[in-house]
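Homework-ish question, so no full write-ups if that breaks the rules, but can someone show me the predicted structure for this set?
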Amino acid sequence: MISKTIRIRFAPSPTGYLHVGGLRTALYNYLFARQNKGVFILRIEDTDRTRYVEGAVENLINTLRWAGLDFDEGPKKGGSFGPYIQSERLDIYRKYAEQLVNDGKAYYCFCTSERLEKMRDDLEGTGAFAKYDKTCLKLSQSDIEKNLAVRSTYVIRMKVPENRIIKFHDLIREEVEIASDLIDDQVLIKSDGYPTYHLANVVDDHLMKVTHVIRGEEWLPSVPKHILLYEYFGWEIPKLAHLPLLLNADRSKLSKRQGDVAVEDYKAKGYLKEGLVNFVAFLGWNPGDEREIFSLDELVKEFSLERVGKAGAIFNIEKLNWINLQHIHQKTNEDLIPILKEILSNSKYKGLNLSDEYLANVIGAMRVRINYVSGILEKSSYFFEQPQSYDENVLKKHWRQETPNQLSKLIKEYSLLQNPTKEDYETALKKTAEQLGIGAGKLIHPTRLAVSGMGEGPGLYDILFTLGKEEVIKRIETAINKIKF
RNA sequence: GGCGCUAUCGUCUAAGGGUUAGGACACCGCCCUCUCAAGGCGGGAAUACGGGUUCGAAUCCCGUUAGCGCUACCA
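A: Not a homework solution, just the prediction itself:
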């Protein structure tokens, strides 16, 4: 038997940015598609006009591309099942909704939202499930025609049968069953003519020949509605897989407020796409052994839906930091230059015209001391500007009465050097210390403070070499003048 | 409130009837060291609770509890 091509879709609504939870959903879809030599589709679910955000689709596409999740069919890219933006498919949904009405599986509803709201309010506290009371289901054909003729606004609702237990199989949750009595006569077409998620989703998944639906757990309770629709249309139901949710530290659904939630925020901070992708892949999945660092290609090979867990996972930034560092380790200094440049150009240092060589040296000095590239600006601004102040504690500990004179001696020694290497700085410093009859540390710490303003960072000679002789001497002189005992 | 889903160290997780319940992050200690990191070595830390089934349960079943999700003309 010939198995049919696996077709997978990622179907976000364009809210303005890609949520990290969305990134994980997209990633799992992508991994599953690639692993099975299937087709990965991007579909934009923009059926809520009140939430329209300018430029959101472009942003989504760019972010997915940044993460390395290329899709085979979708907006801009095209494909045989387009358009891939739902707001451009309104005629299709209307046609199928009307077909349902004709088949007696759905009906027009003219109730005002005020009436529905009042109905829900009245039911509140009674313990009853506040579902639509099916008033418009009782309308006669002539009533309906009369209403339609005067162009009353209306919606189309699906009929949901009573007393049915709807069972389905989920690739992650196994068997799930929900009583149809608890399901509302869901609106399919809204009064503005747009479809709701449920209709659009089912129609598109069928028309686009989607074989597997991999999405967030928040959709689990509405699966019965979808199953009913598939039945009404006589369509085959795709395989379902509902992913566990991503959570805040307090176990609520991951949201803004509690930290960055947009993929672009992480990109802007200088997290590597490899790091973010690797981290997010492990929120709910693991390979079953003790390996933790994976490239996207390796994930494609190893991923399996069977190993996806059921419980929600907290988005733990500490672990992300560590995983990202592991990926930084795998990069050369040169690899990271474009990222640093990008960050610099969005910072107060944007006017600086630093050479690639300089940047590479800075990266080389800082790469094991950061978790993301912008950490370089946070932890070593002295590579981009003179120290603005000198750390009080370091001052107290290492700056003595005699320090200025000792540093003056060091400056003299350094000024004699020609194109000094790191070793030259070290040799000269040690020689000076010896002549002064003091330990090298007596010179090292004050010099570090003079040159960086702080007491921690890369090896001193790395800093000096990167900064260059002129700058080093200038900064030490400045420190001698500015720091009064 | 109703319905659904979920439950192993603080966090991400492994073990799917027999293990001293394993790893990683974080934390602590030691080593390395001009500082801070990185790295190496070591340490503390978990089966939510109660009942079953079984010779034996983290694992299977039931209940409780808790958390989350859904309960829109939002997705």
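Now go work out the reasoning yourself. Hint: The mean pLDDT of chain A is 93.
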